[in-house]
Amino acid sequence: MALRKFKPITAGTRWRIGNAYAEVTTNVPEKSLVEAKPRTGGRNSSGHLSMRYRGGGHKKKYRIIDFKRNKAGEATVESIQYDPNRTAFIALVVYADGEKRYILSPQGLEVGAKVEAGAEVAPEIGNALPMKNMPLGTNVHNIEMQPGQGGKLARSAGSSAQLTNKEEKYAILKMPSGELRKVLVNCYATVGVVSNSDHFLQSMGKAGRNRWKGIKPRNRGVAMNPVDHSRNGQYSRGLKTRTKGKGSDKMIIQRKNGNKLAK
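Above: the chain sequence. Below: its structure as tokens.
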């Protein structure tokens, strides 16, 4: 991915570091794979503000992404596109029967490349297959947590997990956070690292760009009175939000901080 440093022609471009979109090949989405995306402005069904700091922003259409990768057969990459709903780029692929689908675009995937999904396909970039058929050390993304459920893990820009080991019916993955986690070895994952890896290096340059995204100015909790930032009774700092005794705790071997869970 290439970043673009803007010339300081205006106050808004002085600090702006944007995406050059070198990988993106078209700015026109596939009509059959988009649908309306209504906005709430942070209001609930009664019209009351239930989520602060949201509202406004440019209209978006949702791109329907194939997270399940459940269609057999080879597909050709037709274009790499920008998706306003996620940090990663997406790839439009066309199958031999003419069906088109969007998939998350991994780094290195180019127009004209072939991708495939299935139990017996080669572990190459863009291919989706069960982790039991992948060699150790493979970087994967769009990882299922239950077979047939569709990818849930490692879907944001630049993220991937590494297949470190296999134990009976489980694959051991090193997650982007550093956490070691067990996932059923029959679960599908896509080979490669998610595209747009330099996304975190971008700089908005001005507050107005966040307003275009539908994000209103957010005041720091430490600069408020306690009653203002703790409307739901939660502490403003240091509170662990993961549920104690969560069912999936048994699948976590080691936390991102290096601590092993007690058995």
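The helical segments are 11-14, 207-212, 226-229.
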